[in-house]
Amino acid sequence: MQNVVRVLSTLALMGAVRSLAGRYEAAGGARIDADFAPTLALLDRLRRGEGADVVILTKQALDDLAAQEAVAAGSCVDLARSYVGIAVRAGAAHPDIATESALRATLLGARAVAYSRLGASGIFFAQLIERMGIASEINARACIVPQGFTAERLVTGEAELAVQQLSELKQVKGIEVVGPIPLDLQSPAVFSAGRLAASKRVVQSDALLKYLASPEVAPALHESGLEP
C-alpha cells in the first residue's frame, strides 16, 4: 500500500497524531498507520528489526539513530516540547506542587505514586526523587508502570498521584491534571521525527514530516498538552 505511512511514535504524541491523522488524509495526504509506545520500547522494537517509515522519539534517541544511519539525518525535524506533570483522580483535591518543598511533602504524603519505567518522564522522575533524597520512601509504595499511561492507575485506585508527560496524562479519562512539576526542577523533553533509512515510502514520509513540523499543526499540539 503505497499511500500508507507506518509511524512508530512515543506515547507523548499520541493525542496529537490521532487528532491530525484524519485531517491529513482528508487533505490528500497518506493514511497514517500509527503505533504508540514509550521511546525505549520503540528503540527495542527497531533493534529487533520491526519496520516503519517514520519514527517520533525523544530528540536524543532520534539523533542517536541518525548517527547510526538508521534514520535519514536530513529528514529529522523537531516537533514539540513537553513537561512532566502530576495528575489525580477526578474529583480529588489538588495537592500543592508549586515549589520543591511543596512537591516533596505531596509526594511523601501520597499513598502511592504511579510513574513509568520506560518513558522519558519515568526516567526523569526516578532521577528527581533520587536528587531530592526521597527515592527509597517513594519507591517503597510506588506503582511503577512497565509501559502505557500512568494515570490509568488513578482510575483503578492503585495510585493517588500519577506522574507523566502532560500530553500523556491528558489521554486518560476520569483524572484531572494538577499541573507541571516546578519548571525549575525539570528541562522540557523535546520530541522529534525522522524517516527511517530503510523506508520505501520516501516521498510520502517526507511529506508527512513536513506537515508535522508546520505551523498548521500547532493548535493540535497545544490542545494535546504540548508546546510546538
Automatic annotation (TrEMBL):
- Per the record, the domain of life is Bacteria
Per its UniProt record, what SUPFAM superfamilies does this chain match?
Answer: Periplasmic binding protein-like II
Instruction: Give an example GO molecular function.
Output: molybdate ion binding
Which biological processes are named by the entry's GO terms?
A: molybdate ion transport
**Database matches in PANTHER family:** BLR4797 PROTEIN, MOLYBDATE-BINDING PERIPLASMIC PROTEIN
Record protein name field: Molybdate transport system substrate-binding protein
